[in-house]
Amino acid sequence: MPILSARNVTKTYRSGSLEVAALRNVDIDVESGEFVIVMGPSGNGKTTLLNCLSGLDDIDEGVVEIEGHSIHDLSDRKRTRHRASSMGFVFQAYNLIPVLSAVENTELPLLVNGVSPKEARSRSAAMLDRVGLSDRMNHRPNELSGGEQQRVTIARALVAEPEIVWADEPTGNLDSETADSVLDLLVEVHNAGQTLVMVTHEPDIANVADRLVLIRDGMIEYDGVPAAAPRRLEAV
Amino acid sequence: MSQTALVIALVLLAPAIWVARKATLRRLAWRNVVARPTEALLVTAGTMLGTAIIVASFAVGDTISDGVGSVVDTSLGPIDESVTIEDPAQLPALEAAVKDAHQSNVDGVVSVLSLPTAVTTIGSDPVGEPSVWIAEIDFDQARAFGGDPRTSGFFGAGETPTGTEAVLVSLVAKQLGLSAGDNFQIHAFGKAETFTVRQVIDRYSSAGYNSIYLPAGTIESFQSGAVEVNQPPRAEVLISNTGDWLTGADHTEAVVADLEIVTAEFQEVDVSSTKTDLLDSAVAEGAEFTTLFNGIGSFAVIAGILLIVNLFVMLSEERKSSLGVMRAIGFSRSAVTKSFAIEGAVYSVTASLVGVGVGVGVGWILVQVLKSIFFNENDFLNITYAPQAESLMLAAAIGLGITMITIWATALRISHFNVIAAVRDLPQPPTRKGRAKVMIASVVGVLIGAGITYLGLSGDVQTAAMAGVPVMAFSAIPLIRPLVGDRIAGLVGGMTAMAWGVFVFNLFPDAMRESDIDVFVVQGVVLVAGAVTVSASAAPLWNWAVSATSKAGAGLSTRLGLVYPLARKGRTGLLLGMFSLVVFMITFMAVFSQILSDQTRGLADDSRAGYDIVASSAAFNPVSESQVTAVEGVVVAAPLTRSSAEFEVDGEDDPLPWRVTGFDERLLEFDAPALGARLEGYDSDESVFRAVLGDSSLLIVDDFFLDNGSGPGAKRYLPGDIVEMLTTSGESRMMTVAGVLASDFLFAGSYAAIDLVETTLDAEPASGLFYVSVDAGVDAELVAGRLNAELLDFGMSAETFTAGVEEEVAETVAIIRLFQGFLSLGLLIGIAGLAVVLIRAVRERRRAIGVLRALGTQATTVRRSFLVESGFIAIQGVVIGAALGLVTAYQVIVNSDTFGDSGFAFSWPWLSLVVVVVVPTVAALLAGAAPAKRAAAITPAVALRSE
User: Fold this and answer.
1) Which of B23, B147, B720, B795 has the most other CB atoms within 10 Å of its CB?
2) Are A106 and A158 within 8 A, CB to CB?
């Protein structure tokens, strides 16, 4: 049974009289332990898909079910609680809280879930150690390199042991070497059983995933194993 | 001064206007303004508040100063000088001599005979005024006096009164409820005569010099056959100088010199510079109040300035990234600076203009409160709200100037940022050159602080003495930082400044003796700056607090609420400073208000010598002891005589007049007035008073004896001190201070034997002042009322000692309340500023809030975190301000030279403290509510998309 099932998801952005259809009748399932890559040209709905599936954003039509619950029918409080307990996020721009140190940023999801501060600190330290930042724990984001910041973001996304991690172009701001190391980290995480849905522009990355979803003009054009994807569509 | 300030403000503004002609820069700046109208409005509103409070402060100062001029309008008009003569019979000859002198600077001469009397209405429920000046003057001459009949005050007053006619000036008519056709009685020299109001004229110009105008010969008829004439009529020739009412006084010195010659042939004449004397006195009174008001008000003004600085520092932080991009694509430093300056100038000019309007409104409210407290229409100083354009211009220029200085400084700072760091919104990497600059600035700061300290302590410049060591301490922080670390350096610097602020009065009592209000303003700034520095350095304390609250379940919202203010020390410091400064002064004043209120009973007991009532009748119609004791309920009446002597004071060119009260054995019937200090060898206060009765070289003085208005710190006389007293005949008598009164709320001034006062100071015997005791079990208030009613004809004014002290205390407390009210505006600025800062913080942290929400943080947690943040700043500010206010007040009252042995005891102003703590905290939470709600409503996906 998929841990996420989306049907007929439609999302339109409106600005004054202007309407842009970001997602159109999208159907998608995500199985537990899957590594799904979402690719597509810029402005074609990748990030919107991720936001809508994770419940960060509302949808206009359709349904997204996680563990049998329609996530968009939940109250904000319940949806938020579900996000805290079941999801982790990795953003392209890192989005660390600038006034908190690496370990303080990492422990946030645990504190949100009601874990005691002492345990949260200990688990966060362990997670930072796992991503290779044990010596940078007390540094603030502006004292870390881009790669280090992204590692902190990954640590933050994983520390609460979520069922699914959403990653929105996690290597987009990094040089190729750093991007490779971050990708290796994500693969390692996936290999440990973590369900991962990742938006990316990098065709090479698709090869490390179980499944590739290509999206264009808000619609899914391909959903299958990366190796079988049409080359034309993959080269976005 | 206003022109200078305006020029400076315009000089600061001009480059921004000048560069605005460059279309690119102008467009960039303007787009920033209009792109976020709410943000622009908030910056403008905050800056406007800062300017408004400066305007309000100046407008009140103007009004007080203008009140000084009102004395000319209501009581003098063209009267510039007067020549009084002891013998009224010589008045016509004196007038003729002055007229015949044909002085070139004089355009009017008129004679007037006047007398203070008691006036009562007639009927079943008569009312009276104990001291009303009646006068005889020729109305035609009075109209011609000064050259313009329409401004003489007698224009339309008709002919000189005849028969039983009386012309009343509006004030006395209002006080007695009299109008044309009403009858009333005048009492003087034991006689009562009935008159009829013919007309009521305005209290204006020379007509306001007296209160009731009567037919010629009235005063003489009162005098004739009188048993006792304690106060002779005042016979005087009034002189008007050429020029208008104010510029005419410029000739006074020359006219007085001529008059001295002209009147030399007459016996017992006295030439007075009436207008300049009155104006000088009014100016001194007005200036004293204005100085005090501006001094205390400056705390609110400083809060306004801190808000302005805070807002523009925030704005510059927000613009840092886009200005960095400008630099990256090739704009010069100068262009970046100017672009920000143009934007700032838009806010600044708008805020200054609106701020003037709002400030004028706030000033009006303050003046209405002020008037209701202690100015009324028969006061010497009459005030009408009168902000001056010049002051408003100055206040606007100050607001504009401060804003533009902040803008230029922050713009320059940004323009020197590392471009990449600015674009990526990273902190500036430290450079060797930068560090060297800081070190050099620190050393220079320490040296300047040392110089200021030396100047202050050696030259008795108290503000410099107060500021010097703190300047050294703060400047030394970067120097000692490499040795002891950030935290310890901050703690040492801050605590040194605080310790100096609190203890400098004890360490250097002589140098700090004559501290004025500006010293206390500097003290407030020093203490608050020290406390804020200590707070910013006490991170472990706050971390512990966070842990403790986390354990207690407050958790994430507390942590998130504290993390930003703790991380942004500069901004938090400015906000804390705003709160703390104002709360400091409000608390400090609350302590004094509380002490005065608490000690009313004690102060009355100190003065009353076991008596219950102080009763005084008019000198021209004094009551006798037997008349007082005849009133039901009165047991004993101790007569006293009040006079005035001149005393030589070190450092003063002219001798200072001071009140001397003569007493005899009867004052000591029950007890003696309490002494705070007495000459060695006397075992009781009563024994000192008895010694004074037996030794005409002894004097008992009050605790502010010969304080000429310099306030706390003036020379204080102690038992054993010798003071030179000049008698009426000019004889010098060396008097030894035998005791110092514990308090003197009834203004006895000093006590000497009654014989000495009557024989050497020309005091008339039986001047009608009595301390009265009442039958046991009888209500003293009731007896005081009886005395007033039964002896109304004698201008009797009787009240219990307690009521007298309460009245005095009530006025002082009311003034303190007004000051606290004005300071509350500073608090309002602090709260509004906090709201503005939080609203901007929501905008600034939009993305971070989105992340938190994405990570599963509930909206309520985000909302609570903003409330925690506003509460943290407000509570910390309130606690710092209140604690410093209490410590400083305690220090001043218990240990200082000024109050240490004054008999005042420190008293906790519990109610005020509750108000000071609760109101700003609740207000700050309310102020934080809207931004908090806004933050909680942010949709994660939208926030994450934002820049």
Assistant:
1) B795
2) no
